[in-house]
Request: fold
Amino acid sequence: MSKTERILIVGGGIAGLTLATALCQKGFRVELVERNSNWNAVGAGISVQPNGVRVLRKLGLGKAIEQAGVVIRYWDFCDQQGQVLCESDLDAVWDLSNSFIGVERSKMHQVLLIGAASASLRLATSIQTLDQDTDHVSVVFGDGTVGKYDLVVGADGISSTVRRLTLSTNPPVYAGHMAWRSIAPVRPRGLNKLQFHLGDGCFFGLCPVSEGRTYGFGGAFEPRYHDDVQDRLKRLRKRFSGFGPVVQEYLSALESDEQIHTSAVEWVEQTHWHVGRVVLIGDAAHASSPMMGQGGCMAMEDAYVLAEVLHSEESIEHALNTFVQRRRPRVEWVQGQSRVVATSFVQPVAIRNARLREQGDEMFQCRYRPLVSQP
Reply:
């Protein structure tokens, strides 16, 4: 085991809480700080694909995540009116021992908080400076307190403060499409699959997350802009008014502007993920578009692998080098395939739909097959 007595994790999202759980289970002393004043998860829903569920099972949280969400067995790509272009059997793609789960982010966060209960968790705590020498990292927090650590992990998301203070001041890059996410108290037409409804330069996805609730996510390939909260629901309904009855049933079930989270999709592609005794994981290191639905799963895999190598390697330097060697090829595959999917979505509709009818399931299986193996 590397000589690591005190580890600071910055960020209390999926990456940070998963890492806190994994490190505590391996006997490390862990502190986690989160800049927000509560544990409310940002966003609406998430599909935890089987490679992510595999991590949670290893951490003893597999049953909890299944109980918190819904098992999904099929993924459909449909045309704008809801006609199925191709369907993929998820059990045929993935290891049958791990489920594909649709779940509300808030419920997933509660599962992860239970797992991380052994760590020292601090809310409303930001970091101001990071200074490191050969033996330690000195951290000044927003409240003026100071800490000294053997390792600092930036799990603080796409706008990472740790990344800005240590590795790069370059801002995230706009990926070319806007996203709208929400949860509605409805299961349109008894929906029990994950579906992508594809329009012309836009799409609307639906994923069950509980018995009577569905996660909806719209996307449009267009210039970046700010979407005010006021009248957001009205604009969302108008933006996707040309879509079929399943999407319209979902949109009709939304009740307020505040239910909808709008964001510009951004990329982070870091040449280096670590320097000295500081390392980035999850979106802080490699955020990409959600076209593969793998952002949360890649973060959980990062966390599990980092805990594993810190426990097995003799030094932090070796552990961090091994971490990057193991993780970078897998992450780059997801980022590359996300670009491929995004490009296919903006092809002429007739060409795209014909290709999905003929090769959709084959392409889907090829896209996810490399992720079936252990990270």
